[in-house]
Amino acid sequence: MTPPTLWTIGYEDADLYAFLDTLKAAGVDLVVDTRERAQSRRKGYSKTALALALKSVDIEYRHLRALGTPPALRKAYRLDRDFAALKAGYTLHLATQGPALEELGALAARHRTALLCYEANAGECHRSLLARRLQALGLGGEVHDLMVP
User: Fold this and answer.
1) 4, 113 in Cβ contact below 8 A?
2) Of these four, 90, 106, 107, 136, which has the most CB atoms within 10 Å of its CB?
3) Which residues share a beta bridge with 30?
4) The CATH number of the domain covering residues in 6-146
5) Would you say 111 and 3 are in contact if contact means Cβ atoms under 8 Å apart?
């Protein structure tokens, strides 16, 4: 059996309607929020508001807090933008998140799933590391990083 395709998306500087349109155009039917804290200063992107917006376009929402970047790592990355350090710390964190990774893998097997976080560029975000980890576990296949216009 071929591992499921995964999508990733960030909402940095994204208009909510363009964000929703991008997901719909990709055929995504589930967004998994990979933020440790599903709060945002950006209107429409906090957990409850985002879940309602997604529901309005027939996309399910799930928050998997355990797959978010731990606060200390997130704070250090904001200060120095050292992605290698973030990668090292987040990789150690993921090694302790087996049940959450299995849950995400099961969701991706049943849905066209997009991993959500803040950063527009997946290469500067933990969601790219998460997608690679799913691939390594055989729970994820090809990865498409969506960009909101």
Assistant:
1) yes
2) 90
3) 60, 113
4) 3.40.1010
5) no
